[in-house]
Amino acid sequence: MNKIIAAIDGLKFSESTVSYAIEFAKQANAHLVGVFLDDFTYHSYKIYELVTNEGVSERKLKILEEKDVDTRQVSVEFFEEICRKDGVNYSIHHDRNVAIRELLHESIYADLLVIDRKETLTHYDEKVPTRFIRDLLSNVQSPVIVVPEKYKPIEKIILLYDGEPSSVHAIKMFNFLFPSLQAKTEVLSIKERKDSLHLPDNRLMKEFMNRHYPDAEYTVLKGNAEEEIVQYTRHLKQNAMIVLGAYQRGMVSRWFHESMADVLMKELNCPLFIAHNK
User: Fold this and answer.
1) pTM of the full structure
2) Is-contact 177 112, C-beta < 8 A?
3) Helix H or strand E segment including 90
4) What is the DSSP letter of 255?
5) C-alpha to C-alpha distance for 185 and 181, rounded to whole angstroms
6) Are 80 and 90 in contact (CB under 8 A)?
7) Structural domains of the chain, ranges and CATH numbers in brackets
8) Most buried of 55, 122, 167, 268 (most Cβ within 10 A)?
9) In Å, how far are 21, 26, 267 from 129, measured between CA atoms?
10) pLDDT of residue 53
11) Looking at the predicted structure, is the pLDDT value of residue 115 above 80?
């Protein structure tokens, strides 16, 4: 049984994160861990809310802190209720130190991490991808699925492939975690205009795919990778999840690099499975 962790902000509970995580846990027959990031530096209130004519109000501080405790507890209870209802094996971790450090440490011992693409672990919103997500993806020790704010059942898997080891590694990791996922699968590759329409390493790639995804379809397009992927995916009729190798340190794939994942998070409203190749 695999171990999936869902990163949860108890003060801004993401139902989408939990819904996707539960579905992934079912598909992988996995144990789901709700990692509640109760960072001691993070509160729902702003400092100015504590200030009165006499200075900082200890009474207001106590009331607001108690409210945060209650809100976090409600989130935990809601998570437990959903897991029990769906029959998912689960447990809960409360991480009370600096959130990004705690989550990176948790990822060492996880097969997969699920998180909302808008997660900030602050009381304000940021543009996608947020600083928290960037920091996480740059240093995470497991594959990550970054999910949109609304849950939709996954009907199609798009495997991005450019012939580089990072893209193949991502496909391997996805297959390892979800060997029996019931969804249409497509390999999407973007090539330069001067190149042929053959897949990179065509014979080897198809030999590999025939062992793992024998019914996969293949699409090769020409042009700018980021633009072509966004346009192609936007016109799909099925709800898709995209698999890509990205945010790796050191040598990077020709076009599966940090900005690719950033662009897809900004432009597309679908889950992204992102895996390092370290």
Assistant:
1) 0.91
2) yes
3) strand 90-95
4) S
5) 10
6) yes
7) 3-147 (3.40.50.620), 156-275 (3.40.50.620)
8) 167
9) 20, 28, 11
10) 61
11) yes
